[in-house]
Design brief:
Layout: E1 2-6, E2 9-15, E3 28-32, H1 38-62, H2 67-80, H3 88-91, H4 96-105, H5 115-122, H6 132-142, H7 152-173, H8 183-200, H9 204-224, H10 251-258, H11 269-279, H12 285-289, E4 296-297, E5 304-307, E6 321-324, H13 327-335, H14 341-344, H15 349-359, H16 372-383, H17 388-395, H18 410-420
Antiparallel strand pairs: 1-2, 2-3, 4-5, 5-6
Helix pairs in contact: 1-2, 2-5, 4-5, 6-9, 7-8, 7-9, 11-13
Length: about 425
């Protein structure tokens, strides 16, 4: 077994693996390498063998009772044979030569057609019906690249709004097959949101999230499963109103209320240290919760924390950064040098802190939340005249111009933070 020459043409002779015996009756196969050059034959042999392996794998999958797996297998087999899958309704519209090539490719020596091969290249496979519920199940597998690096809590918060969107849609329209979703169905769903916004005083943002998540799920499955459906998903979102701005705490409020002796004393230690750490770093609450012990550097000339995408996914590529520690934030991390394991894989911090601040009259207005400390830190840096690039680097924001050089040194960043630290 190996490469041999017959009638001036080299062939690859291989034993058929037992795995493929259900779909290949031959024990050995001769694969023409279409060359009289031994060097070229050795170069072509691996890909020729792989071509057969892929075809056998597709044929094995085609024996599956699952309609989706079977349909995918037929399309893959068509690709292995060098053809784009075309359904039976459109096969007759192909150029005459293309159609003949397809027919001849599935003809066996005894003049009979292999049913699976015919289904692959002549469009005989039936598009599996996929309900909206099933679409969501398929979507999770197809969208795995979007969840790489997310923590369990981040994954939960990513999945839940998509589950909600599908649940809401099914509640209005029913668990239809996605091939049957009509423009009227989408308009009915949109109208349901209009009625709900009026009744519950919701903003268009809530409706738009549902429409965008649902659209993304349907479009992703349609595209990556190559279903070829024309989905009525355009021009459905609502015009947004003015975005709600989360107000910053004033400098005096932070000093006189939040940093007053024992103001945060009844808040559990880790939650209190996250809050105080936020005062002079402006990190996002989730970034503080996710800090690991190795990200907290208290030794050396410049104590600092490093925001890393370890164990969790960062909000953007710009979020990776180093923030010097000063004032009450440095003291907080000296008290919690190992980070905050209680909140590392939990989303309960904001609810816990905001409830505490509200019940203890520590919110400057009813619109204020914990996040206002992040905005307050930026306001103090802006008032101090700190360079825009430094502010954006410290906050993990994108710079609206080309980045040149390495940026400010850690020592320089430390001076800037110290100048506004409380």
């Amino acid at each position: 077994m190996g490469i041999t020459k017959r009638n001036e043409i080299f062939y690859l002779i291989k034993r058929v693996p037992i795995r493929y015996s259900p779909v290949e009756k031959r024990s050995f196969i001769w694969i023409s390498l279409h060359t009289d050059s031994e060097t070229v034959a050795h170069q072509k042999a691996p890909s020729a063998w792989q071509h057969y392996i892929e075809a056998w794998e597709a044929r094995l999958a085609g024996d599956n009772d699952n309609a989706e797996i079977r349909f995918d297998a037929v399309k893959k087999l068509a690709a292995v044979r060098g053809f784009r899958y075309v359904d039976a309704d459109n096969i007759a519209d192909l150029p005459h030569n293309d159609l003949l090539d397809r027919v001849e490719s599935v003809e066996e020596k005894k003049g009979t057609l292999d049913k699976l091969e015919a289904a692959a290249v002549l469009g005989g496979a039936t598009l599996p019906e996929i309900t909206v519920t099933r679409t969501l199940d398929i979507y999770w597998a197809l969208a795995q690249d979007r969840t790489l690096g997310k923590s369990n809590d981040q994954l939960r918060r990513w999945r839940n709004p998509r589950i909600k969107a599908v649940t809401n849609f099914i509640g209005v329209v029913g668990d239809k097959e996605i091939s049957e979703i009509s423009g009227d169905d989408m308009l009915d769903f949109r109208q349901w949101w209009i009625d709900r916004m009026k009744a519950e005083g919701l903003t268009p943002n809530s409706a738009n999230k549902d429409l965008l998540h649902l659209g993304d799920i349907l479009k992703t499955v349609n595209k990556l499963k190559r279903l070829g459906l024309s989905l009525p998903l355009s021009d459905l979102t609502f015009k947004q109103g003015e975005p709600n701005q989360r107000p910053p705490f004033s400098k005096n409020w932070i000093k006189e209320k939040l940093l007053a002796p024992d103001a945060l004393g009844r808040l559990n230690t880790q939650a209190r240290c996250i809050v105080l750490g936020m005062v002079n770093t402006g990190y996002r609450p989730s970034e503080g919760c996710g800090l690991l012990p190795e990200h907290i550097k208290l030794e050396g000339d410049v104590p600092h924390i490093s925001i890393e995408g370890v164990g969790r996914q960062l909000k953007s590529v710009h979020s990776r950064r180093v923030i010097p520690l000063a004032g009450v934030s440095l003291e907080a991390f000296q008290q919690c040098p190992e980070g905050f394991p209680r909140y590392r894989n939990s989303s309960s911090l904001s609810a816990t802190v905001n409830k505490f601040l509200r019940e203890n009259n520590l919110l400057q207005t009813s619109s204020h939340t914990l996040y206002g400390l992040r905005h307050a830190f930026e306001d103090r840096m802006l008032a101090a005249g700190i360079d825009e690039r430094i502010r954006r680097d410290l906050f993990g924001h994108r710079l609206n111009r080309e980045r040149y050089g390495k940026g400010a040194t850690l020592e320089h960043l430390h001076q800037c933070v110290q100048s506004v630290a409380l």
